[in-house]
Amino acid sequence: MDANLLDPTAETVDGILVGRLRIIQRKRGYRFSLDALLIAHFADLRNGDDLIDLGTGSGIIALILAQRFRCGRVLGIEIQDELVAIAKRNVVLNGLAGRIEIRRGDVRCPETLCGPQSFSAAVFNPPYRRLRSGRTNSDPEKAVARHEIEGTVADFLTAAGYALRPEGRVYAIYPAVRMVELIARMRECRIEPKRLRLVHSRLDGGGEFVLVEGVKGGREGLNVAPPLFIHQDAGGYTPEMTEILRDLSAFPAHGGG
Description:
By secondary structure, the chain is of the alpha/beta class. It is built from seven helices and eleven strands.
């Protein structure tokens, strides 16, 4: 790895998906979690899709999807300058400089992100917590990633609706306790929920996350998939979760650069 890509005093470079991707992350700032891998697997893109990743963070979701599918244009939008810089380095580190563009942008101002109807798919893993709900993390990167400081789920959906062509698809992950709000906001933005799956940490636990696919201007009709359980009662991942991670790591080598 180019030594100029990493600050060893403040950052780590982590191999994921059996080493297929390497991700530079802050030691003390924002670090991606399992939900990023869940939405990257749930997103069902088509070859040639133009993809916008809203709130790309370190670029992890865009990197996976650009490798899993032969996407056309891939644009990652992030509001935090330091994460923009990290995401750009991750693109270079993984040989995808010719296929993924990272840009600083604010989802609350969709017209500044791209032209209208520029993309066929959008993905986002937005902040989960309402502003002034619970303790806000003292680390600004974590605070913006977790709390609705720089954008609500409605803002992300409005931005997705602006960026998408008619019948474009949105893929999102959100806390199960806020599922009703997500569905309601999708319909307000004329993004019809078409596929939904609840994610449970354990077999005897309640739903923790909801994965949703919506279609801009789509007709009514929702497919509710069987729930996904992450952990076995005895410890370790369930066979399905293990298979998801195996599937993510088996992407063809579409990179290069």
